[in-house]
Amino acid sequence: MSLPSPRLLACSLALLAFSSTAWAQRVMEGDLQQQMSPAEFKAAGLDKLQPAELASLNRWLQGKVEAASAAAVQVAREEGRKAVVEENRGFFDFGSREPITSVLPGEFRGFAQGRVYVLANGQHWEQTDSANVGGVRRQDPQVSIAPSVSGAWYLQIPGVNTRAKVKRVK
Q: What is the C-alpha separation between 33 and 111, in angstroms, rounded?
């Protein structure tokens, strides 16, 4: 087979540039001649190809579409996995060991067993130990919730020397 003409390569690259998911799905279902109108097929110069050349172009394009689709699926799968891990951090032993940082909206008046702390990131944490701090007031304090080696989580507020053992409830 001879080298493809520059026009054929340009046409192929132009077709790849339009590889949205819907277009990729259409190409997966058939060859170029089936997907293009006769006028489009002729305008692209594809009518000048021998059947073997057209079949080769279809195989090449199909491979590119399949590779791009597989890559897009892999990226989507990884992004979905990361979202699930991040959304469920604090439940069980899910996610990274990095501290969760957020803001505790409103006034913080100290720790108390059974108190639920609702963070700006939407997470709800309930204090499970009897840690207590009196006389402390902070408006919209930054908080850090970090896992311990044993798997327990501890809520810490900068400038407060006591930390509270918490569990995620929502």
A: 71
Contacts for 154 with CB less than 8 Å, ≥ 6 apart:
145, 146, 147, 148, 163, 164, 165, 166
Q: What's residue 10's pLDDT?
A: 44
User: Cβ distance 132 to 110 under 8 Å?
Assistant: yes
| 104 neighbors 120 (Cβ within 8 angstroms) | yes
For 25, 66, 158, the CA distances from 69, given in Å and listed in that order, are: 9, 5, 47
User: Which residues are registered as beta bridge partners of 12?
Assistant: none
d(CA 143, CA 140): 9
Q: Amino acid letter at 151?
A: G
Q: What residues does 103 pair with on adjacent strands?
A: 142
- Say how far apart CA 38 and CA 58 lie, in whole Å: 16
Side chain identity at residue 54, one-letter code:
L
Instruction: Assess contact for 117 and 124: CB atoms under 8 A.
Output: yes
Check: CB of residue 111 under 8 Å from CB of residue 149. no
Q: Are strands 142-147 and 153-156 parallel, antiparallel or unpaired?
A: antiparallel
Closest CA to 36 of 112, 109, 49: 49
Q: Which pLDDT value is given to residue 132? A: 83
Helix (H, G, I), strand (E, B) or coil at 142: strand
**Mean pLDDT, to the nearest integer, of 113-132?**
90
